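Fold this sequence, please.
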Amino acid sequence: MPPDPVASGLVSWRSFDRGDREACLALFDSNVPDFFHEGERPEFEAFLDDLPGPYLVLLRDGAIVACGGYALHDRATAADLCWGIVRRDLHGRGFGRELTEGRIARAVADPRVTEIALKTSQHTVGFYERLGFVTLSVEIDGYGPGLDRCEMRRAVAAG
């Protein structure tokens, strides 16, 4: 079995640029209908066109395999993780953890941040719970039929 690309350091990060738009949309499409509802695509497209904060891409061998960002609003103490997506055929290989932990590390560099917030579906709640998030609310079919909207938070350790 080849080494885990995340553990072996064969991945790199960089900031999203406009030329990454189609690759990120392809990541989204690879996760429909299990993790995203196709009706969310226009919202994601609009998000990519007007980013509210840093948005990053994770590359393996030069190809974008994951993307995600975060936003911190004026006078807010919670950083919101935004549109974290891993190419569907690469789920379970550490890219999601790398993506999430990388975004958290960047967000908590801001001393105002005391918690990390996100909204996800019921299909990834367990993943985020293993990273210390707790579910605050669930809206059944909140993203569309069969995809519940789960609001989660994680406190940031002081210091």
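The mean pLDDT is 92. The CA atoms of residues 70 and 81 lie 4 Å apart.
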